[in-house]
Amino acid sequence: MRILLIxxxxxxxxxxxxxxxxxxxxxxVVEATSLKVAKLLYESDPYFESIMVSLDISSGSALSLIxxxxxxxxxxxxxxYSSEEQASEIPDTFFLDKxxxxxxxxxxxxxxxLNHPTYQKYLRDxxxxxxxxxxxxFYLWRFEELPIDLYVKINDKKYVKILAKNxxxxxxxxxxxxxxxxxxxxxxxxxxEILESLLYSDQWFEESxxxxxxxxxxxxxxxxQQMASSMGLTPHxxxxxxxxxxxxxxxxxxxxxxxxxxxxQQKRMSFQTNVSTLITYITSALCDELEWNTQSxxxxxxxxxxxxxxxxxxAKLSSIYYLNLDELNQLSLTEEEKKKFFQHPVRSAxxxxxxxxxxxxxxxxxxxxxxxxxxxxxxMGKNFQKIPPLSSLFIIxxxxxxxxxxxxFDKNPSDILKxxxxxxxxxxxxKCFTALKKIIDN
Length: 442
Ligand SMILES: [Fe+2]
Fold this sequence. Notes:
49% of the residues lie in helices and 10% in strands.
């Protein structure tokens, strides 16, 4: 059964996806976090057996979207839900009351949902109800530990316990199991209700007293990057992205020693997040040095640092640092991979389109992040005369960070600067590079 689910409330959507996947047979839930994305998904392939829409969605009128679906195909059953009762009056739809925040019960909601005739015929019968229930590995980022045991599936008959309940796990644990081929871990079915309540709650690791700010930022960035590249950003995540950027910016203004920060960051972080944090440090310090230090310039550069590579989903592609075509040809990429790589600034810029009103120019910085002063970059091959100041600053910071990481932070910063120097002698680049030398030498 293919279901289109439209909701920008992250915890509730996680709960609902898990419920549908565990109670219904052969279910495929396609998630959308905005009305715009939902419309695009529907238009590209309208074959859904059911559509579920949160009427509390904040990105526009759910009602007009429902009319759009109904004009297209009256027969697809539409289920709506909301915390507000008056929302129940839409003709030809089935309404579910989410209850107010104070008195919500996952059980009542699930019962009402599964009683609907659309879902009745897809219910798993008791006998086929498995001993294990599934949970998307992605949701583990929300917590530090779970009150239930976690299993990995070896085959239909064999599941192996990989984590005992109430044991803390870290990002290395999540990343070990979350691969492009594996999206799920498993729990025993007897624990299912505990999981359901946990996902249904608004609980989120941010309230934790045990995680450091650095770890919280790291986790949040992971969630943001994955959401941005898969189903789109929600208002909650955009707000979190702002908080992450602001916290990174304020930590650099407290500690000016960039070389030390680079050493410290290197230890345990995965590639993409490491890059984005370090770029934010450098761009922010460069803004101070150049006296382009308005909060909004720093934030725009910080956003660009988080999102510049979000459209590159494979680790192989996102770890490439492009210097020139010859080096790229040595990496034995398929034609398809090369195409993706050369288009990624355009695709990543499209992803941030929705924050562009609030943070103009982020899109441009992302679009330009692989351009080079001599015109040898991509996707447009602009030269220094066509690359605006903030983009030039970002390109230099990106270059410095990538060269440091590729050398595993072993290379002397002054040697990296020497390598870079001949490339940045023109236009805005000259000024930005002089500032980079100053902040690195300090
Ligand atoms: Fe890139």
